[in-house]
Structure prediction request, 895 residues.
Amino acid sequence: MSQDRVRRRRFIKTAFPVLLTLSLLLLPLFNDSSYVLSTLVFIGIYSIVTISLCLLMGYAGQISLGHAAFYGMGAYGSAILTVKFGLNPWLALLAAAAFTALVAWAIGIPTLKLKEHYLALATLGFGVIVYIIFTQETAWTGGPSGLSGIPYLSLGQLTFNNDLSYYYLVWAAVLFTIYLSSNIVNSRIGRALRAIHGSETAAEAMGVNTAAYKLQIFVLSAIFASIAGSLYSHYITMINPSPFGFRMSIEFVLMAVVGGIASIWGPLVGVSVVIFLTQLLRDLIPLLLPNAGGEMELVAFGLILSVIMIFMPEGLFRGLMDRWDNPVRYRKAKAPLPSSLWEEDES
Amino acid sequence: MTLLEVRSLSKSFGGVVAVAGVSFSIQQGQICALIGPNGAGKTTMFNVITGIYQPDSGQVYFEDRLISGFKPHQIAGLGITRTFQNLQIFENMTVRENVMLGRHVLTKTGLFSAALGLPASRRENRACRRLAGDFLAQVGLADRADEPSANLPFGQQRLLEIARAMALEPKLLLLDEPAAGLPGGETRELEQVILRLRDQGTSILLVEHDMETVMNLADNIVVMDFGYKIAEGGPAKIQKDPQVLKAYLGEEDSDA
Amino acid sequence: MDPGQLLQLLIAGLVLGVIYALIAVGFITVYNVTGIINFAQGEFVMLGAMLAVTLHKYNLPLPLIILIAVAAMAVTGMLMQRLAIRPAKSASLVTFIIISIGISIALRGAALLIWGTNPYTLPAFSNQAGLEWLGAHIQVQSLWIMAITLMAFAGLFYFFEKTYPGKAVKACVINPNAAELMGINPQSMSLLAFAIAGGMGALAGVVITPITLASYDMGLMFGLKGFVAAVLGGLTSVPGALVGGVLLGVLESLGAGYISSGYKDALAFLILVLILFVKPDGLLGKIRGNRV
Prediction:
């Protein structure tokens, strides 16, 4: 690889996170409207789940169509433990994550033995079952009306009870998640996961305990999703089952895939694109078609999604980056370019 | 000393007998070739030795230890690895990363340490990158180390699989038709690579159809046909064995 | 519970089951010919139902309504194949799942646009009061559903066994490579598969509406349950769809009657998960070996 390209990559790789962190830090100075900040809070929370999904789907090559269940277990876990048992919110967050991890471990053992569409189905079935439990177990979860009065998180004197403070809290969490995930991807573990995705047989022949690794990454991604769910609970302070069903699971997969599942930055792009697209359509459609209601957005959303997947299945982040940086190699490549070209630590 | 011993191994699929009561052994420092017409059971034998299948009867011993029944990754951990007839490189990784993966059993960074980016993890990673480069140099792929592995031409992908297997520093390396599809010049280069491996202390079990390669490399040859072992011995002996000739060329009075 | 009630539940389950079976046929055909799980299948059901409702408002005769709904959704299925599936070439499973989800979102949005959120109904196909049999009351629509669905299955059987296009589709199911070598065009087969999926889905939607109402979001649950039925039956054959569908319908009906109607949907998915763990190839599926 040419020295120029190496230097340019290295520059982007260090510059990008720094720029991102700076922008995130300074943004509220320019615009601290509730609308913008709360949108960014949601982008952050969804990004944590989506990044975890990317580790599972893009790197380890598995599928989960039920990830909203883990997100919901974190949300309800935090809500129930703080509202009904008065537990400290941070402890509740950890306890919920531990419980979710246990469930993911138990479900994962039989489920991860399945492949491809069977795996997709099993995770889908699991997700729906958990959602139905949320709606039916009224004594615990408040049923379809849900739970309210969830307390705020606080750290010493600081209570996270407004958009601005929560914005910083969530994005600190997002950056930490990115740090952890990026480290994993560039490590022995990340290679093992990608090997499982590339060829499970060869990975086993090279000593990778594929069953154990798939389980580990499944549990880890469940933990991330659970923490995101807890953050969601303590932000909006009242929850009901509707954000934790099949539609949300699919939306997470959508956001992951649109951004690009085989990358760590892709999910951020994907979440942002999906959320902005939804909002854009909401604003734009009434201008173009004055009599159309919210339904038109759904149609447009679905169509745009399909178009992206048809023409850029590796996702927007990787698709655009590779085309810009490697136009010749991109056209000649027989398989999606390895993610490490952008992420590998070349020290 | 005997490195690998296969004792009366049998394996069937449904009603089809793939391997029937085959016994042979490989001595340390040897190159042993497993040959036979198509369907003789050679790849099945590989798959049983490496733990992909369990034998129906019989045992496999490695360094006097029973390994039949172990999972493939456990067997790799003992120092046995393989290449694949239908190439199983990791197309979603670069050339170098493929080889780095070969170091998996010899490295130990776990999920926790990796996620936190602890110094030990980073150090091990850097060492792994350098070593991978060395192994690539041994097969002549050093200059393509950071390219997507999918972009390599076929012959180089074969060499990549070998470099990946070498990275595991195996005691026993199983090569499944490494010369298949290679033009003559590249086959000779491949033979040199294999001989160098043997000289460095790796014992080799080779399935191969290219008779010239087999005769050039093998110290011991095991011949299979229809699942049975029909002959065993050095190259000179095998070349003259009537059973072997019959298996490959058919009966003299057959109507072909 | 008295035997009359039990019989009632069984019959209700049977009726529901053949509906699931029709939807399952759509999944199975598309999956076997293309390898794709079509998440838009449920929307074919929904659109068929809604279209029938609208046609009924124009006082068209029932047989014509059924014909138009089935044909329209068969065409929609083909359009989906041509415009969304074929251009994606040989993308990965996840990509196709997302594409079909995108299409299903678009179709649902279109339905919302045209018909709004209200549930609609169709009158039963004839006016009789239903019949009493061994203590169970059977609605007349249930009889219509059984009759029409069984005719549809008979038609499918004839199609797959006796007609050239049908046998070509079957060949793709059994051995796609050999089929292609014999001159069967996989793209045409894919088109045909989607047409069947659309048509059968529409039929299911039309016949079930008098009993369960139709609304713009009915597609999701019907699609998922049809999918469970397909997996139960083994994802490989039309008789499998029938077996899986009936089994699922009966289990769901009994579950709603005996256990709790809130959890009845969960039951379907619990069955799915258990089948996948225990016998992923379903009840009639064949074990496919893997050559390394």
Notes: The radius of gyration of chain C is 19 Å. Chain C has a mean pLDDT of 84. Chain C has eleven helices and two strands.
